[in-house]
Amino acid sequence: MRSIFEKLDLMDKREIAAILDEIGVFLELKGENPFKVRAYQSAARILDRLEDDLGELIKAKQLRSIKGIGAALADNIETLHQEGSLPFYEELKASIEPGLIEMLTIPGLGPKKVKAVYGKLGLTSIDQLRLACEEGKVAALPGFGKQSQAKILSGIEHRELYNQRHLWWNAFAIAEPILEGLRKLKQTEKAEHAGSLRRCLETVGDLDFLVASEDPDPIMHWFTHQEGVAEVTALGQTKSSIRLESGLQADLRVVPLKQFYFALHHFTGSKDHNVMMRQRALSMGYSLSEWGLTPEEGGRKVTTIKSEAALFKKLGLNYIPPELREGTAEIAAAEKGTLPELVQEEDIRGVFHNHTTASDGRHTLEEMVAAAQDLGWEYLGISDHSKSSVQANGLNEERVLRQIEAIEKLNQSKQFKTYVFSGIECDILKDGDLDLDQSVLEALDYVVISIHSGFTQDEEAMTRRIIKAIEHPCSTMLGHPTGRLLLEREPYAVNMQKVIDAAIANKVMIEINANPRRLDMDWRLWHKAAEKGLMTCINPDAHAAERLIYYKAGVQVARKGWLTKESVFNTNNLKSVKNYLLSTS
DNA sequence: GCCGTTTTCGGCCCGACTGTTTTCAGTCG
């Protein structure tokens, strides 16, 4: 519980969402009504994705108007936000052995079984559970057996590896050859990946593959016997699951061709999107599942479709791209015909946040430009670190001026078709000042402002610091605005709504840092921010020529954030970009 | 706990696989 001295430090959305999720788990262990559990868990997801400022919503008494948040949840959220604690939560937490929560992370162990080992054997920790399994006590419990016991032991053994999430980029690299392998089999009529990988979520828990075939056995056999399989965890007639040596789990489902697109839609998810689609189907007199769309009453008639688009059409919706299927506003927009025309990889004509050997990059200016030219880009921006980033060999004023000269010379030489802009990734110092003299910043084509130190400032100080930097007349775009490293480091404390508003007011862009470990600013914030007028620039933050390709991950973030190419600066042609940078520098 | 153009009460998305059973509960997605 927080002390009263910390009372001003209001709990933010993510902290509250985490607590609601925890409450859901507690209730589950208590054997509460599963729909109540779901209500808490769904409220947690809603908060996580909430784009508005929570404090504002509470002040305006708007919390209850959000679908899925009723009187009780609104009260609880408000209490957590204002007080930093919630008696209901504290009491619930105190009444449950913490070791039981941990047991739920063991694959195959759900709330009922955890309750059983606690109730019947009095086990309160994973260590005790391991011991009981080794002594054969667990197998003797009703509903358990020797196989369950062995599975639990193996689950305990590999728990950490199995529960890891993986960066989308890395997971995709593992999934691609598997999908290719499936497509090469002669029994395969169609094959796609599904799940969060297809929705391009920033991290992926497992891989999902879907195959259309009338002859599943050989496909299942290939899948479960391919190289890199550590364990086969399920093998049925239509579904099999494997554990890869990397710890990643992969599921394969094989369905007849006529069900392929229903199944593809179903297994692409998200869960929230599927629930909304099913509810919509029900309201139109249909029942929707991975098997098809059938009239609710009696009839066995399965409607056949030849694409996912046809499924959406049958439900009166425009086609919703997988990236948008997160259960937010996509179905309402698809109904009204107001889905955006999303930016595409081909729209990108160059990128601006890249490093060379001048600071901490691995390739020279010429090597970077050659790589950009190979990608067919019209322009490339070079933005090495500034002098405060000593660890990255940041440039001082004199070295910046020398680099500007080198870039001018390169452009004049016409050695490359790709035009080069001279920029800098300028450190935002602790007080919000920029790291280089204004006269030098003015000599550059553009300035990326970023934070590389002092991550531990409180939210107010950090927000003030970033906004002050945004207000600097030379700032062009804000780099990796929250400093997060996916699966490694949390974002620093910052009020992004205020930063977004300041960026719009000062005509400063916020980049989508496309490095797969960052993907920052998060897609969840873009829809509303762009509606308010915020522009972005998709940047790979490449520290080597072969990493320019990261821009693709940035395009995915933009698409998940509902962005059209009008909101993405680097979809403009060279002439427009030159004009814009000239007019603002 | 949430929700309502048939409902303020009684529903709440739906199916596969496993391991335990001998017809099904628990887990998972």
Rounded mean pLDDT is 90
Task: Using the CA coordinates, give the radius of gyration.
Answer: 26 Å
Full CATH superfamily name of the largest domain: Metal-dependent hydrolases
Give the proportion of residues in helices: 40-55%
Structure characterization notes:
The protein is α/β, with parallel strands linked by helices and 585 residues long. It has 5 domains: 4-94, DNA polymerase, domain 1 (Orthogonal Bundle); 98-163, 5' to 3' exonuclease, C-terminal subdomain (DNA polymerase, domain 1, Orthogonal Bundle), CATH 1.10.150; 166-255, Beta Polymerase, domain 2, CATH 3.30.460.10; 266-336, DNA polymerase, thumb domain (Beta Polymerase, domain 3, 2-Layer Sandwich); 345-584, Metal-dependent hydrolases (TIM Barrel), CATH 3.20.20. It contains 24 helices and 16 strands. The protein has a 7-stranded parallel sheet with strand order 10-11-12-13-14-15-16. Strands 2-4-7-6-5 form a 5-stranded mixed sheet, with helices on both faces. The longest helix is centred in the N-terminal third of the chain and has 18 residues, at 13-30. The radius of gyration is 26 Å and the shape is globular. The chain binds one DNA strand of 29 nucleotides through residues 33-40, 42-43, 67-73, 107-113, 142-145, 147-148, 151, 195, 206, 208, 234-241, 251, 253, 266-267, 269, 271, 274-275, 277-279, 281-282, 287-291.
